[in-house]
Amino acid sequence: MGKQKQSSGDQQSVTDLRKLYYNLQKEHERVGSAFQNLKDQNEELARDLAERKADLEELANLVSTKDQVIKNAERRLLQAKKLIADLKAEVQSLRSRNDHQEPEQQTPEQRSEAEIGRVNSHSLSSIHSRYVKVLQVIHDNRCSMANAFRLAGCPRSTVQDFVAS
C-alpha cells in the first residue's frame, strides 16, 4: 500500500505540475502578447517623439528667422524716421528762407510759387491774380496760353477746376 500511495501522490504531483505548466504557458503567452503590444506602442511613441523634435527645431529656426526680420524692419523704420525728420527740417528751412527773401530778389516764378503756396483755398482773388499774371505773360511774350502758364510759374488750370462738383 505504501507504493500505491506514493504512486497516487506522484500522479497528483504530475497532474499539479502539468496544470502549473499549462498555467505558466498561458501566462507566458499573455505576457508575450502584452510585451508585443507595448513594443508596438513604444515604437509609435518613439516616432511621434522624433516628429515633435523635428517640428520643434523647425519652429525654433522660424522664430530665429522672424526675429531677424523684425530687427531689420525696426532698423529700417528708424532710418526712415530719421530721413523723414531730416526732410521735414529741410523743407522748413527752405520755407523760412523763402519767406525771409525780399520780394525784389525773388524771380517771378518764385514769387508766384510762394503766393500759390500761401493760398489755402481757391478763392476768387487768387484765381484773378493768377490769370492777371498769365495775361501779362501772354501780352509781353506773345505766346500760347499753355506756355504762358509755364512762364508765369502757375499751375495750368481751367474754371472747371475751381467749380465745386
How would you describe this structure to a colleague?
The chain is rod-shaped and about 150 Å long. The protein has helices at 2-100, 108-118, 124-141, 145-152. The chain is mainly α and 165 residues long. It has four helices and no strands. The model has no long low-confidence stretch (mean pLDDT 80).
Integer count of domains:
2
Largest sheet: none
Would you count the extended β strands for me?
Answer: 0
Uncertain residue ranges: none
- Assign a percent range to the helix content: over 70%
List the topology elements.
Layout: H1 2-100, H2 108-118, H3 124-141, H4 145-152
Question: How would you sum up this structure in a few lines?
Answer:
By secondary structure, the protein is mostly helical.
Give structural attributes.
165 residues; mainly alpha; 2 domains
